[in-house]
Amino acid sequence: MKEQDKKYIFSKVFCNGDIVETVYNPETYETNFLVYHGDGEPKFEDKYSNEKEGDFFPVPASNHLILKQFIQLASGFKQYAGNSQLFQEVRDFIAQYMKLPDSFLTIAAVYVFLTWTYDCFSALGYLRVIGTFGTGKSRFLQIMNRLCYRSFAASGVISNSAVFRTNDFIQGTMLMDEADYKNSDMSSQIVKNLNSGHTKNSPAVRMRPNANETTWITEAFNVFGPKILASRERFEDEALESRCLTVQLLPLRNIKRPIHLTNEFEAKAAELRNKLMSFRFDHRNKIIADEDTLEGIEFPRLQQSALALTTVAKILGDDVLSEVLKFLRSYERELTLVQRQDIKADILECILGLVKNNSTTTHNKMYMLDISREFDRRYYNEYDDSHGKHYGAENGASSYKSGAISAKRVGTYVEKLGIRKAHDGGGFYIPLPQEINTLEALADRYGLEKPIWAPKHSKNNLELPLNGGSDTINPEDIPF
């Protein structure tokens, strides 16, 4: 077979259940396949042959990703005493080189195991640390990089094409330092990559010119996989922010941890990777996402992001699952508080207040201008010039100018809340009969008092046109 015709892969799980993994021996500078058939010990092979798909070969050691130690691979496999004991080994190893809050230390250790079985799940959350200079973000990534499945470290300045292509080729764990993405085009593209990589079978699609640059070729990249991020601030992109399990790192002094990562660190990390490879062989084809492990978690988005983590935690032990759930419940309360500090929460509170009073709605229609005036009455002093006031009324509605936020701007936040609007000669409004269930779901999500609403009977409210139809939004479809 010609060299250019060979199919090189890092890993593949075949339909017959065979698990094939590329391993690298740093002493001989050679790569091989480790093939596991589902029973007995895995075998080292030079290639793997499949009747339907042909021959596959391990990525050669001369590949720059391996040669330059960009990707961390196991060198083989090593048996371990049991799941709980291996978990404790991983947890202790992280703690030996990094000071973390106990609850997040457990999360980090479980996430390591998750990376070795991530392809069992359809959705994943990301692990993230945030903090200023000197809080240990980079050290955390260094440690996790040595433990996670086929991990590769990418700096915050990695190019767009490198992110997509490297993810697609390696299909492992991506770690990104200085991941503070805001407004640049490059940052926008990487944020899209991270959002696509949260869910299986959601490839990132890009266009590139052909060799003659006369036409464009569509390319799809598989970017699904676990990701560990370090940044100084939270993301502005709400969708990405909601997919992260985050801890704030604080500056610490006189921490009795090694300043430099020694050869002893590398040797122990290599040993753990080989044990974790055995863990993958033992569990990859047996794990089924267990929704019963999400006991007490209510946010749909958090449930989606945490299911893989809680399922793996259950395998590691009931005590481990208990610690993970404790962290997640606390994290859910924190998310609620963060939401309450958002301007959308203030807009919602105004809407609910108007519904409760039932005094400013006309024919069961709540106009954006009414909400704008209520917002001005409640929050003018809070939203002073330092926050930036949004003057200007909605076209055709009125010459009234809100001192804090315009009716047009209110409409933008109403849409972000997932509340549908309609329009008539008086401007944009919320059709309350159709949207009251959505308002109730939002009140529950933000921890606000649910509206008690009695419809005003009028011939004018028999038919209320909606931009998106007349059905009420499913509470689980609320966009955050």
How would you portray this structure in words?
The protein has helices at 64-67, 83-97, 102-115, 137-147, 160-170, 185-196, 238-241, 263-283, 300-316, 318-340, 343-357, 368-379, 407-416, 432-446, and strands spanning 8-9, 11-13, 19-25, 30-36, 43-45, 48-50, 54-58, 71-72, 126-130, 151-154, 173-176, 204-209, 216-221, 227-231, 244-248, 365-367, 422-424, 427-431. β6 and β7 form a beta hairpin. It has 3 domains: 3-69, no CATH class; 83-340, P-loop containing nucleotide triphosphate hydrolases (Rossmann fold); 343-477, no CATH class. α3 (102-115) packs across α9 (300-316) and α12 (368-379) packs across α13. The chain contains 14 helices and 18 strands. The protein has a 6-stranded mixed β-sheet, with helices on both faces. Strands 2-3-4-5 form a 4-stranded antiparallel β-sheet, with no helix packed on it. The chain has a 3-stranded mixed β-sheet with strand order 1-7-6, with no helix packed on it. The longest helix has 23 residues, at 318-340. The chain is 38% helix and 16% strand. By secondary structure, the protein is of the alpha/beta class.
